[in-house]
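User: I'll paste a sequence; please echo it back and then give the predicted structure.

Assistant: Echoing your sequence first, then the prediction.
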Amino acid sequence: MTSPVLSLKHISKRFGGITALQDLSLDVHPDELLVILGPTGAGKTTLLRTIAGLEHPDEGTLYRGNQDITRIPPADRNVSLVFQNFSLYPDWTVLENLAFPLKAPGRNLSADEIRSRIDWAADILKITSLLDRPANRLSGGEMQRVAIGRAIVRRPRLFLLDEPLTNLDAKLREALRVELVTLRRALKTPMIFVTHDQMEAMSMGDRVIVLHEGTILQEGAPEEIYTHPVSPTVARQLGYPPINLISATAQNGSYTADDGTEIMPATGAGESAVIGIRPEDIEPSGGKHSGLVRVVEHMGPMTILVVQWAGQEIHLVVPKYQQVQVGEEIYPQVVHEKAVVWSADTSSC
């Protein structure tokens, strides 16, 4: 494997009595899109700001290759940071906004080189026709394209994107997700993309890091984390409808819920566990214990059922052609080969 372009070793960052990052270590590899996934307060923005040099860690070291860059000023790190709030000068034209980072002290670029880079970025981002328009006359999607353009004209070693699609409508977010992945592959520059949106993480990331309260809970390919989450906390971060979590005890060859519902086969006896079952991994028929359909949601290519079963409400996903009615009695059956079993000790991890 090629050497990382960036390594963080045992990074901790505190703000007063609040620990934002706790003994965090990670590598960023060449030519990859690394997604940092986590809820509000997980430490995602602090992590990006630390990489950019806008925050200094209380402990730990940042390396670019073999070079310690922990105390190197932001301007000397050659990274570009894109925020969710666009960060444009509203009265400047698109061209002026794109030119601004290229005119920074020490760059010494000619006017021809500046214009060449602007035209190159504008062509890639499909904003050539907007170059003479003031930023305050752009739509949200156009403004975000310009903000991304300001990052790529610098041709940095690393792109940092802090929830850049959050303020856009759903259709535009979907379109820009695809464009960002295509752009990163074309530029062959590593990118760290921070988000709380599981769809962005699943669809964009070559690798995903799940961050929770400043600590990395799991990292890996999106499908690996979705299929084999190391804990219920990780499992809840990915998947819609959300994963079903059922407390159970191994007895008489089955994991059995508190109300006596047999969930799936089990080895051993007396062991308490939490069973994680994705909604698509429960068949609506074939089981031993009945459930009552509470809600039916028609979602185009699929139908989501909310069913009272095993002493709680669970989600099932069934094909759109399968007709199920509210109030109907069904017999859920878990595809147990795809379920995840955690010991009760990991249920809060």
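The longest helix spans residues 170-187. The radius of gyration is 24 Å.
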